[in-house]
Amino acid sequence: MCTISWLAGGNDLTVMFNRDESVARPAAPPPVVHAGRRPFLAPRDPAGGGTWLAVRADGTVLALLNNYHDTADVDDPLSRGGIIWQLAGAADPDAARERIAASLNRYPPFHLLTIRYARVRRDTWNGRRLESFREPMPHGMFTTSSAAGAQVAAGRRAAFASLTNRRRPLTARHLRIFHDGFGIDDPAASVRMDRGDRRTVSQSRIRVTSTTARFSYRICHGRERAPDEWTHSGLTLQPPAQ
Question: Residues 6 or more apart from 146 whose CB is under 8 A from it?
């Protein structure tokens, strides 16, 4: 269970991500710059070794959410967090995608979002085939849930729509309000979720301009109103390799 939202305008992009996980899973430390073939900024999951969210040196944001709608029997599965780790630091992201595609049957189902300002691509792996969706979307959200998935997703989409359909410009502040649980009273269905054994364990906020990326991160404890303080990390963007 996780929720991502984004808002783009010109060369400015804001992305927010609530990560929902088992309370038994160790907390991930704040993001730092990692040196792949090209540098990228991401937190690293201490259990799986990969990440669920990263921003590349060209300003592209990569996000991975579990696909709970589809199931697949996978022998000796690879960690889905390794997908972003490979893509984020690759000198040639297209070649890295081809390598990942060659071993897709080793991964449980997932959704991979690639956001470059107002251009959004979603790759969905259902355990049998990979489907890709591309369209310009200046703002939007995507969410998954392991419990009552369709019902929970519909409620979260309605809450987001109630913010975006008002007669006023959408701002990054609205994304923050949404990710703090706006519009849904049920803790188990809220964007800032708490089901006891699973809850929102962290919030991430990425802002990308034409020259820099700033990744803000804080640990959360479900619906509790006193999350840890934000930490901030930055990355100077680089032009694409020739």
Answer: 1, 66, 68, 198
Each residue's pLDDT tens digit, 162-207: 988 876 789 999 999 999 999 999 999 999 999 999 999 999 999 9
For 19-23, the CB contacts below 8 A with 24+ separation are 19/52, 19/53, 19/200, 19/201, 19/202, 19/203, 19/204, 20/193, 20/198, 20/199, 20/200, 20/201, 21/198, 21/199, 21/201, 22/197, 22/198, 23/196, 23/197, 23/198, 23/199, 23/201
**Length of the chain measured in residues:** 242
Please work out, in degrees rounded to the nearest 5, the angle formed at the alpha carbon of residue 81 by the alpha carbons of 221 and 150.
65
**Hey, what domains does the chain have and what are their CATH numbers?**
2-236 (3.60.60.10)
Is residue 124 within 8 A of residue 111, CB to CB? The reply is yes
